[in-house]
TrEMBL record:
Keywords: Hydrolase. GO terms for molecular function: phosphoglycolate phosphatase activity. It comes from Streptomyces coryli. One of its GO terms (biological process) is DNA repair. One of its GO terms (cellular component) is cytosol. InterPro entries: HAD-like_hydrolase_sf, HAD-like_sf, HAD_sf, PhnX-like. This is Phosphonatase-like hydrolase. It comes from the Bacteria.
Amino acid sequence: MTSPTPDIKLVVLDMAGTTVADGGLVERAFSAAAERLGVRPGSDDHAKKLQYVRDTMGESKITVFRALFGDEELAQRANAAFETAYGELVGGGAIAPIPGAREAVEQLRAAGLTVVLSTGFARVTQDAILDALGWQQLADLTLCPADAGRGRPYPDMVLAALLRTGAADDVREIAVAGDTAYDMLTGLRAGASVRAGVLTGAHGADALRAAGATRVLGSVAELPGLLLAGRARAEA
């Protein structure tokens, strides 16, 4: 039997793969960045590094590049090249909202919940996405790893959302939603009682549950139904 959803007051949502459909832009931007650092497309090294990028979707991008290149200077160069390539793709119109994502955020806020959009990208890339979608005013707050200290899978962004908004009195009043195992682990480490995995991005249901998902949804469009039903029960 599924336990009742608690009274959630703060919702922290991932962007790419959760609220934003990027159509494989992360992989395309990585390939462009890696080529600039001498990683030849089609090589075994490129394939190995690309698979690591896929496996670590949701993690802070600079952390991924540090692991891939093992040198801070190279990692910073790769990250800058990645952010530039991704920004160019976003600016070219190669991005769209997940169907129902905007409406889900608006419904949650209309019901009195505070909504924060978080990302593993740098601020410049996050802002490019928000600008392209017209989402700068959609959520109560937007956060990137530099705003919080560390990116996923650390709990920093979720806890920063709580501290900056003051929306909840208890970490158990937080819900986290994302498409990767790193999103779920972040929510678990932050103490969020609802960790909703969505099937519109990088990882499947088994990986999401193994990382701590309390629920797996088809998409973020289903999140208001889950959270607001829990609020109605709590009020009753």
